[in-house]
UniProtKB/TrEMBL annotation:
Bias-annotated ranges (Polar residues): 753-762
Keywords: Calcium
One Gene Ontology term of the molecular function aspect: cysteine-type deubiquitinase activity
Any Pfam family: USP32_N
EC code: 3.4.19.12
Protein's name according to its UniProt entry: ubiquitinyl hydrolase 1
One GO term (biological process): embryo development ending in birth or egg hatching
Family annotation (PROSITE patterns): DUSP (PS51283), EF_HAND_1 (PS00018), USP_3 (PS50235)
Record keyword Calcium present: yes
Keyword Protease in annotation: no
Gene Ontology CC terms, in alphabetical order: cytoplasm; microtubule organizing center
Amino acid sequence: MGNRIYSAGGGSEPPISLAQARAHLSNDEFVRLQNAFGRLKKSQLNLDDFSRHVLGGANVPDDAKKTLFRFFSNGSDGISFDNLICALVGISRSEYAQEQFIENHTEFATWGLRPPLLTIPINDAYINFYEVMSYVTHLSVSEVQDLERVFLRYSTGGVMLVQKEWEAAAAGGCFPQMFTSRLLRVFDDNCDGEVDFREMVCGVSAMCRGPLPSRFTFLASIWDEDGDGHLNETELAKMYEEMKVPPSDRSVAASGHGGKSAAPVDVAQWAITHSNYVKELYTWAQEIGHICFGLRPETPAIELEVVRGFVHRMDRMGASLPTECNILSAVWYREWETRLTRAAAAPPMEKCEQPPPIDNSPLLANVDPFRAAAKLSCISPENACLRRDLTNAEWLAIPRVLWSALVRWHGLMRPSDEIVRRRLPHGRCPPEAVAEYRVVEGGEADDLEMHPVYVRFDRRPRFSTTGSVNGASGGETREPNPWAYAQISRFGRISDLLHYCSKELKVQEQDLRLWLLTSASNASLPSSPSTLSVASAVSSSTSPAAAAAGGGTNTSPAPSLSNGGNNSPSSASPSGAPALLDDPRARVYDVTASGGDGEPIRMLLEQRDRSTGVWPEEARFARSGASIAQSSLRGPAVGLINYGNFCYRNAAVQCLARVEPLTRKLIEKETELKQALARRPSSNRKDYKAALQYIQLVREMRTTGKKNISPVSFNDAIRETRAFDGALQHDCEEFVSFMLQQLHELLKEPPVEQQQPLPSKTSGEKKKEKEEEEDDEDVEDAEAAAKAWRNHIAKDSSLITTLFSGQLRSELVCKECSKRSACFDPFSALPVPIGFENVELFEFVIVLRDGSRPIKHGLRLPRDATTRALADYAHERTGVAASRFRLYRLSHQNKKVFAIVPLSEPLGVATHSTLLYLMEGDDQSISAVHRRMQHNQEPYLLGAASGHLVMLFGVPIMVKSEVAGPVTGRKLYDDVWRQLKRFISTPPPSFASRALDPCEDISAGFPFSLCLVDESLEWCATCPPLRFCRGCALRPDDSSPFPVATSSSSPFATPNGIPPGAILAVDWQPIALYLKYNHSRSEAYSEDPSISAARDAHIRPSSLDNCLRKFAAYETLDDLMQCKRCKKKTKWDKHMDIWKLPRYLIVQLKRFEYIREEGRKAKCKRVIDFPLSSFDASPYVKGGRGETERREEHQVYDCIALANHYGDLDSGHFIAYARSGEEREDGEQGWLLLNDCTVREVSESDIDKKGAYLLFYERRRRHSMVGGGGDSEDDVDEMTETVSHI
């Protein structure tokens, strides 16, 4: 909806008729206007549309805008296409209509002499880059555009080619690395170590087009290692040696440096008469230019020569070819040769038949049985099904660079004709699936995997996961349906298949899993929990010989693997049950031998429910109680099926189960505990159900032959406690504490009945007694700690307290009188703070006005810091006053200036998706931005407003407007030029790779013009908006560049007549811009050492040591507390010390904390480094019998398990790592990854410490005491005997 315009007189006739308007338009103009109006997809334009699309967003005053709208709409509410045509032609080309309009609206009087242009004429001043490059090279505009498409495939962000990308583009694995690396240096005109597109176009032109001597001149520079434009004696000797030139023919003339060196042109003249030596080098250059860089050969003869030579050379290279190659039909190749040979022999003007698009249909099976039967879409890049009876004479294997070139030149008949196959070492695939590749003389033949395997993905319809797993309310189990298929090499990985699926479904890979199915089971669950190996469940096959003997019916050949199949599945699986492919690193041949003879590998694709975190298949297995088979190598552990949002429980159970004394004694005393509970009142038994179910669960985990179990009874018991809502995600640490408390209540000693119970104390008496203990400063800490510990043991003595209980000392200190008050409390888990750092990393570039190379700096500053902090830092580093700096925010994409940030603005606002530039300037300086004008190739309505596009590039500069003496245009131009000289490329050498243009000569003038523009950077700041002026060029002479203010109210009544908010635009001449302006150099900067220091400090992981020190640090309490010594409420400091450590130390890294500055709770994702073994905790223990004695105890701990959290505050996923108890082949301690039902062996280096949340440490066995007293490790066995008295 637009603004509604009302006309006092209603509708009126248009200024000219539609027929008259049509007579003033050419057919092209009328079609352009039609297309421009049609793109708006509206029948009428409202005022907003008119302002944006007709007036081009120019800053036209509102009154004038509404007047124009009424004129165009004839007083109605909208502008139709017919009215638009009549009005546009009337004001731009009809003198009668112009006179009538100006007579009624005098504010548009200037249009009488200079009406707005309807169509912008083509002007050489606005020619584009392709036209410029075509003008100075031997290439056409279309050829330059073709080169750009190839360049964008390999360039870094579409800007430049660096060494790595250059090797991929130029070599493609098919050329000597020595040659391509030298060629990079020759292409690099400005010697900055990078090849931009301009240099690539010029280099390809010089190497592959133009006179032959010029091509040899270009290639001679390959040996010019010092880049001086000549080849000295050493460089010439190297050239002779590499081209194997005999001494008799080493006759290159030395015309440079007094006869001591040869110019490239001298080498070119020698090469013409000794072409046999340079033939191979010249052939390589032609192949790189045409095949790799995409320059289409000028004639059929050249294409025939280049491609034939390339193919024959690849045949000679053999096994040194890239791993992947394309298959090309020999029928099409012969047809291509025939037609090009005929065309090459034909007269120049005779039109010959061109080669057809590439057609590989002779290689394809007539009917793809799998695709025809399943009618599924392929989600992998490769989907061609080749004939099984193919012979080697029917196809060619060519590198992918040659395939890409042929497709660019001749096209592709159909997408399925692109066939990619993998070259493998001999003997790694079944014989019927491969073809012999190229045999290198004296070497071994390679195999080409002609027939990859098919993988069919099935998906099960969504079902509810919130119902009970024991009843029928959990949702109906439905059979999976075929969804898609993929074709993959046997050496492809499961992660590749997951990538195909995630790309198709547009979900993250971690939310997908694959299950291996058999053709017989259709993913049905087994009726009994019997187990078979996955290899048996999947293939159920024997060798063909065994099948013939009656040992089996499946004759599908198993792959011959040189590694002996050491990664083959080893899990247990019920016959016909799906097996979870939980190792993404596994290769396809690791898990199956089928899929190569038309029968696809069937996989079930599972997607996790993002709202609950539930894996649907795990919920299905939980219903049946069946075990989940897995394909990865398994350790001595069992997985726990997550059929609800129970990952926090599974991780907690897996960690607690690694506390060996607890788990062993619970299993041993299970019967006694049940008998003891049977003697208790039935009303109390339900309080211990969760603990008993935990014991049954860990016993089953230790004794089952399954690889995973479903803890249904355990979770039901947890639900009955009403402590954890099953539908929500909970904290793993809270669940660990809950389970320890449940086990403690089950195992703790009851009061002895024969003892006379002591009279109970009132709460007031207990509080008074505690205050007296805290106030008694004369009591030694050791005595108070021992008393508190005895009281704790007397009330809560159990195996849990023996294993997990430690002691903390909490102290309060009055900030006025230093009165101290301490108390001692037990703990079972030690929560240590990570701490949100209230700092951000700010990276910014300091640009000085002297034209020196900018330098990028880095600072870590508080989040509430202002830009003044950066200016102060720049003052310290450069000596320039802080007030003289201005901070720019630039877009990452188009470098458009968002704003000049005031020095008082918070930095946090200034850094979002922007680049920061701190530029030297002051209040009298003008911002200068780089612009170029470009013809609008898209349909537009009014040429004066939209015929040109303003393109911004580069980094702005600051131009000083107040200099010594009067400001002149010459001084402004000189100031800009001084700062821009470092962007301008040096003059090309004498062997330039392109033609030179007189317009490039900038010695007599400037390659740009300066003009004042408004804040939009598109319109002139001095001309009235209705002129649609893009900017009036300032004269580079001694006259004043700015308008003179005639009164104090004039818009130019500012210092030096600069309009408020005006910006200086640097409009570049097209040829100078495209051929001289170095874009990479304009945005280049040096990095100050502060960058790496700030980055390292910002991303450096914290350590457990830092967390423990933060835990013991003093903090001032917010609330005032009564001090008995001061007799008033005062401020107090509080800190805590570890007084006594338990045998099993649980450390909670407090990732979920309240950010006071922001008033919210959030997750801290900072990485914490912690030791997995030999953690000496003695420095953090303050209790004991003296500092020296305590340190001699060496309280060394080893990590036995850890729980990780991934995600955010409100949602996420818990997993666990645990020691396997077995030593790996490399001598390291083995570890297990326990991710719900997934269990996989990992190395210590594979443990992900980034998400660590709970750390479970076990103290190494010793005979000394912990802290200042307590139980020795041998006391644990004695303590566990107390359970018999329950």
